[in-house]
Amino acid sequence: MGTLEPRKNPGALLGAYAKLREMDPAAPPLWLAGGATEASTPWLRAIAEPPLRGHVTHLGYIQSETRYDLYAQASMLVLPSHLEGFGMTVLEAMTAGVPTIVSRRGALPEVAGDAAQIVEPDDAQGLADAMKRYLDEPAAVAAATARGLERARQYSWAASARTLLAAYARLLAS
Hints:
Blueprint: H1 10-23, E1 30-33, H2 41-47, E2 56-60, H3 64-73, E3 77-79, H4 88-95, E4 100-103, H5 108-112, E5 116-119, H6 124-136, H7 138-153, H8 157-173
Parallel strand pairs: 1-2, 3-4, 4-5
């Protein structure tokens, strides 16, 4: 979601997906969401060539009002970012009941908690193994979905407002 840029690490995702297809040629297609930039040229070129050609679709930028529909069709969300400010995409996916795989960077592990598989962002084999697990193990999907829904409920505008108010109170007291 958002924009295809180096910090989102789409190259690692594409490499992991190629490894997944080696392990499981029947793996579902990969939908790569995000607006194209000049930096995305190598990734878009890679999806037009073997072994990814015909298996990866670049969807472009996804408007906020259509994201839920996309999540509802997804078997998983894979976000191997090097840097995420908060990880709203993870919460959106978990709210939609989508099992997630995130990188061990930025706010992603904190936001996802125990509801996601957490992998090093440049570990293509680890990402592929995590994807394969969700494809092969319905119990892992069910557990991740349940934990994700519970985790997402912990984040709300009311909870954010209470946290911010408490921070202001601590600042004023000091």
